[in-house]
Amino acid sequence: QVQLVESGGGLVQAGGSLRLSCQSSGRSFKDYAAAWFRQAPGKEREWLATISRASYVTKYADSVKGRFAVSRDNAKNIMYLEMNALKPEDTAVYFCAAKLAGSLRVVYTSRNDYNYWGQGTQITVSS
To answer: Residues 75, 71, 1, CA angle at the centre, nearest 5°?
Structure first.
């Protein structure tokens, strides 16, 4: 099993940047495909970005493509989400998630694919 803890959230002005971290512990993070999701009040949890085990493949939701970048450092058991040009509509609780994966290239984009989740970190973007 793996445990995930997000950090780096906070309050930022529109147009600003933040970097989220997802620190893993337990089983080696390199065995997992991973992703970022977010959930705004009253809305469904939304997939944002995903990265394969060895970073060979990344995919992004249209809502964040070109603004957000996902990366990982398996030696440090950590994943990042670099967020730029933030908008008020990016305000949400952000979650990282992981799924044990056999392939180095497979990625998953559905919340139902992931069985390990962090507790979430709040991001508020002011206008």
So the answer is: 55
